[in-house]
Amino acid sequence: QVQLVESGGGLVQPGGSLRLSCVVSRSIFSMDAMGWYRQAPGKQRELVASMTSDGSLDYADSVKGRFTISRDNIIDTVYLQMNNLKPEDTAVYYCHARGTVVNYWGQGTQVTVSS
Question: 20 to 30 A Cα–Cα from 42, which one of 4, 27, 112, 113?
Answer without folding.
Answer: 4
